[in-house]
Amino acid sequence: MDEVNPTLQPIGHSSQREPGRCAVQTDAAPTPVGPYSQGIAVLGPLIFTAGQVGLDPKTGKLTGEDIVSQTRQALLNLQAVLAAGGTNLSNVVKTTVFLADMKDFAAMNEVYQEFFSTDPAPARSCVQVARLPLDALVEIEAVAWYP
């Protein structure tokens, strides 16, 4: 790969001029250390979701007191929002994960990888925050495109 110019690898489309998403990869930035891409270039309409926590939509309560159950429910909620918007997780180009405690990163990442197993995985940022709504352990937001 070129050190100065990143490469774009079209995903599902033969031309970069058509709506779609392309992986952005360059040796001038670190190789991803997890299930995410350095960047995703998108041509076409987008949907931006609100952050989703691990609330059960039927009970209005957090699904559990552990990071695994809350991450799984947050991603199921995200999946539902995307479906209502006419797209799905395979079209997500960027996520932001907010953790109450960075010590939960590995466990969150295990569940996250179950939901984002496409290649390339979405670009992702993950930060620790002081507090989340309802004292949730994790919140996840996404940007997806319409194929």
Automatic annotation (TrEMBL):
InterPro entries: RidA, RidA_CS, RutC-like_sf, YjgF/YER057c/UK114. It holds the Pfam family Ribonuc_L-PSP. Residues 1-29 are annotated as: Disordered. It comes from the Bacteria. Residues 1-14 have a biased composition (Polar residues). Belongs to the RutC family. This is RidA family protein. It comes from Thermostichus vulcanus str. 'Rupite'.
